[in-house]
Design brief:
This protein is mainly alpha-helical. The chain contains two helices and no strands.
Length: 65
Amino acid sequence: MKDSKNLSQKVKELEEKIDWFYSDDFELEEATKKYKSAIALAKELQKDLDNLQNEIEVLKEDFSK
């Protein structure tokens, strides 16, 4: 099943995950789990951005013809 979140939603979610580490809710026991989740989301965002960059390059090339 494909994730239906858009890029902006994913960025917001990652920001919320990062904010947790600086919050009063921080618990060492949860840190590893939250860290792994944030890393996975960051990798997903990087992949999305790479795909978007590729699309832009294709459009740019098509436009320049």
